[in-house]
Request: fold
Amino acid sequence: MTFQSLDGLVQGLHHITLVTSNQEVNRRFYTEVLGLRRVKLSVNQDDVFHRHLFYADEDATTGSAITFFEWPELPPGTAGLGSPHHLSYRVPSVDALPSWASWLRAAGVSVVGPLLRDGRVSLYLRDPDNVSIELTAANDQKLTESDVEELGRNLPGVTAVTSGMRLTTFDHASPVSSDPKLTARFFEKFVGLKDNFSLPAPDQGDATILAIGNAERPDFIRYLASERAREGYVGRGSVHHIAMAVEDDRDQLKIKRHLDDVGIGNSGIIDRFWFHSLYFRDPDGNLLEVATKGPGYTADESRETLGSRLVLPKWVEPRRTEIEAFLRKTDAGNPVSWPPVYPLTPKRPEALTQSN
Ligand SMILES: [Fe+2]
Ligand SMILES: [Fe+2]
Reply:
């Protein structure tokens, strides 16, 4: 058969899925502190006695959904090969960053920055489970290092997440690679994405950033690459997988055929009800997903009531009573502590080996 090009099929990120230890602490953090909306409360379809929580913007836009499996029994994870390092949200402008620093500090969250990055300015924080989150904006005003330091010294008083601060969509996800050339070849051949540029990693001299993306979003995956990178472990506070968006089933199937043709293991197409999914791993073991844009989160709930009650895909619905009883038992053994004691954010937030 002819080998069709996959260029242009993947449109950007679809969602990023992580692991939390406590759904209520998680809900309060992502809604009350980060200002997102819960758009789906469901269960992990591969492990139906554990919750799956989805947060996004008001319209549940593709590319803004952060989702969590609740697994209180897992030990803390470690970033490294197979366990992505951090995720990054875009904010509307650099001016939103001092507002976020002020708001987060008032909530007891440890933040580092704003810091000058390549062509952008970023603020870093840790969520209650130690997930590393970057908030970033393009450096349109061409601020210098001292301008950015000045921004960090003059924080405004902020009493709410205003529209000028909103997390608009993901900017990038950062998994870890031990071999950027191999990673780049893998994405080019099997996902139709290019390695568009590479840069020295900002917080670690011997590592580079490998930017993977398409024409519109050249770096929505920013691998932190180092031949000395160590194995990671997916646990509490880890990124479990990174999902990329394709338009429809046909485009998804083209990617599956490319994987099948050379024998790369994949999950086959799975109906997740709100979208269709295909899972596979990159050469370093990072779990990736290609998901269709539709049917979308409003397939079983109205836009107004998204995320307000436990919804189950129809093939799981017959087990609702059993599942709800199990979840009540989980909650009884997993008390909510709010506000949480937030983990410290490392001073070099994009270093592969993190210490304070
Ligand atoms: Fe980053
Ligand atoms: Fe997913």
Observations:
- Residues 15, 17, 241, 243, 277, 289 surround fe (ii) ion (ligand 2) (CB under 6 Å).
- The first strand starts at residue 12 and ends at 20.
- The mean pLDDT is 95.
